[in-house]
Every structure is written in structure tokens, then in C-alpha cells.
Automatic annotation (TrEMBL):
Pathway: Amino-acid biosynthesis; L-methionine biosynthesis via de novo pathway; L-homocysteine from L-cystathionine: step 1/1. Residues 1-12 have a biased composition (Polar residues). The keyword Lyase applies. One of its GO terms (biological process) is 'de novo' L-methionine biosynthetic process. It catalyses: an S-substituted L-cysteine + H2O = a thiol + pyruvate + NH4(+); L,L-cystathionine + H2O = L-homocysteine + pyruvate + NH4(+). This is Cystathionine beta-lyase. Keywords: Amino-acid biosynthesis, Lyase, Methionine biosynthesis, Pyridoxal phosphate. The keyword Lyase applies. Residues 1-52 are annotated as: Disordered. Belongs to the trans-sulfuration enzymes family. Its cofactor is pyridoxal 5'-phosphate. One of its GO terms (cellular component) is cytoplasm. Its EC number is 4.4.1.13.
Amino acid sequence: MSAAGSSGQRHNNAGDASAPAENVVKKAFPRVDLDGHDLPPSPAPSSPHSGRRYAIATELVYTEGGDQYNASSVPIYQSATFKQTSGSGGGEYDYTRSGNPTRTHLERHLAKIMSAQRALVVSSGMAALDVITRLLRPGDEVVTGDDLYGGTNRLLKYLGSHGGIVVHHVDSTVAENVEAAITPKTAMILLETPTNPLIKIVDIPKIAAIAHRVNPNCLIAVDNTMMSPLLLNPLDLGADIVYESGTKYLSGHHDLMAGVIAVNDTALGERLYFPINTSGCGLSPFDSWLLMRGVKTLKVRMEQQQSNAQLIAEFLESHGFKVRYPGLRSHPQYDLHHSMARGAGAVLSFETGDIGLSERIVESAKLWAISVSFGCVNSLISMPCRMSHASIDAKTRQERAMPEDLIRLCVGIEDPNDLIDDLRRALVQAGAVNVSLDNFQAVQPGDQPAAAAN
Ligand SMILES: Cc1ncc(COP(=O)(O)O)c(C=O)c1O
Ligand SMILES: N[C@@H](CCSC[C@H](N)C(=O)O)C(=O)O
């Protein structure tokens, strides 16, 4: 590979007067490594379409351009290498670790959907967080919440023990707690909202404003997995980096692992591309194609999922369970959530007061698969303390008040009456005393699924 950069020589996607305009990397595009040194350009420049022109339902399915045959579905460029036009390079792509046309197509599409200047796709949500945390240096501090996805907690713990990063976990539902933890060494604030699995809401605009005032150098990174870009755009609320697990709503079928990172700052985008190219965690061509296909149905899936989730949350609440779901008026941060988001999503959790009872409920359900993850077309049931959050040790779970009996429901697109019937039957079979086989009317005639206006 040619050492380009300051020499102005071509890397694998540099300017070529004879190339079509859209293939030319703009000279103004900053190219820096983690230390801010000049680098050759990456092969996936910012989305030419990052300014959205249509409503989200249209943008999700609409793509411009295509390959030389105008294929309606982007081809899977299943190639590790790309032939060059000269000994000094000359091709737009050279090697799939560095860039691949199918991946670029997806990244440009996602940048548009996420209202971002640039999106990058990697092999999982955790790979996305790993890439983001490579912006940190030993001695840096991170402020984050005390209710986080278990894998996020595990990665941060590892950075603390092996990377020299100091991680402060605070109750991030109170912005003042975050403020109090910020020091001159704070390099990143990492937020999740709604939190997984306790469905707490974090005030992104308030925390971003405070953090940028107190320490202008610190970056606000938001995990948007629980909402997806359909329901929440953290970049519009003051975040510097948004990332999400594409394994969930974006793909929607639990047939791939993926992670997405999006930013509005070109230099930051290049700093994030560097570890992706260096380590090789960019999303494969096939998974990029699959994710592209999944994204197109995000709106119809999410609307059905969240309308089902609302009915299920109301059903459980009507039977006396303490239900955590931002679509319920009883959620203590209902107003805050809806001031930021366009919907409540499709993940809820509830307590039964008895671990054994929770286990029996989970195991009695038939339509609800016992499985980790969420955002899939199928409905899932799990016990976070035993499953998705088992990597958080029991002492820490106790300190953070994670109820061991917590059941998490990740609602799919099935008929809501079937889901509620199955849940009611599981509750009765498990011996939940406050539930009878009464006739809860899940869907009233004329009910419409809640619309995710955007
Ligand atoms: C909120 C949240 N963020 C990130 C991740 C990581 O995503 P992935 O499983 O794709 O690595 C998950 C689940 O795994 C999650 O629930
Ligand atoms: N064994 C896995 C657990 C994955 S949990 C996936 C998802 N984020 C969820 O919340 O269900 C692990 O150790 O990471």
C-alpha cells in the first residue's frame, strides 16, 4: 500500500481526475490517526446524502445510484482484494478490511438515516464500542451510568483493569451526578437511554450541555440500541458520537451481528475509521448486504413491535406488576423520554417479587422464546441477571439495585392477542397469584398501531 497522505499520492480511494465525481475523496476531508497525524483517505467518505429529503419511511427504502448495471439490490462484493490500475494504486478500493463497496453503500445509507455526516459499520455493537473507546488514552476518565448493558459494563471494566482508564459509574438519570464526576481528565461520557434492563431515562441534551461547558474536550457517546434512529437521534440532542448494535432493531431478524457508529465531525469520523481498518472489524460484505435489507423495514417492524409492547405493558400493569416501560404514564420519566424520543420502543421489564416465580413464568411461555437480545420480529423473554447481564457480578448487581427476579420482554411483530394470551397462560401456570384467566381485550376495534412520526 502506498504511503500517501502528505505526499498527496493515492491510497485506495484518493482523487483521480478521470474518476466519476462521486468516487473522488474531497481534498478537504481531514485524514488523521489517533495522534492527529496525517493519513491517507479512507474509502468511505461522508454520505453525499446525509441531508435527508424525504420522510423517514421513504428514506429507509430509497437509495440513489447503484452499480454499473443499476442493480436494485446492492450487490455483495464478495472480494478481499480489488485490482489496481497502476503500481502506485489507483483503485477506489484495494482491500476489504480497508473498504468494500457493499459496506460503503450501507454506511452512506445509514448516515442519511441517522442524520449523520458519516456512519461506520463494524462486526458487532461491542466492536463499535471497542472502536470508540480506542479514542481514549491511559489516564483518561470515563463517566457512565450504573445501569448499562452487561457487555458494555464488561468492556469498561476491562479498560479499567488493562487500559489504564478510570471509569466512574453514577446514576446518570440525575444529570448533576454526571456533572459531579467530570474532571479535567474526563475524555468521554457514555450514556445509554432507555437503559438496559431497568429502562431508566437519561437526559441527553442536559448532560451534553453540562459536559461541554464543564470540560469542552470530553466527547458524549450515546448507545442508541434501545431506540434505533427511527425513534431517537442523539446527534441532534448534543451527542458527539452515537453507536448502536445493528444486531437488534436495525437488522430486525436476529440473523446477523453488526454495530454502527455515526458522527457529524469529519475528523472524528477519520479517527474512528483508523482502528476499524487497523484491526479489521469492519462489517463483512454479506452482513452489510443483510443489514441493508433489514434497515428498509425498520419503520413497519418498530411500529408493530411498539404497539404490541404498549398493550403488553398495560396488560401486566393492570394485573399489579411493577412494569418498566416508557410508554406507560406511570413511568417516572415519561415526560423526559417523550421530550427526546418519538416512541417508547419494544423492550419492557417487570418484577414478580420472587425469583422462582420469574423462572417459572419464563419457562412456561411458549410463543416467547427464552433468549437474549431484542429488536427482532419474534418476541423474547429473559431474566437479565441470569442472561444478558450475568457478566456483572452479583455484588455489583446488588449495589446497583438490579432485581434478580426481573423479567425482560422484547416484543416482536406477532398478533398482540396471541402474545397476551400466551403470557397470561404462562403467568397462571407459574402461579402468579394476581393473574386470572380473565378476558383482557388486547386490541379494541379501530385501534391503529402507534405511529413513529418522523
Ligand atoms: C444496549 C446494548 N448496547 C450494545 C450491545 C452490544 O451489541 P452486540 O451484541 O451487537 O455486540 C447490546 C447487546 O448486545 C445492547 O443491549
Ligand atoms: N453471552 C452474551 C450475552 C449477550 S446479551 C445480548 C443483548 N445485548 C441483550 O441485552 O440481550 C455475552 O456475554 O455478551
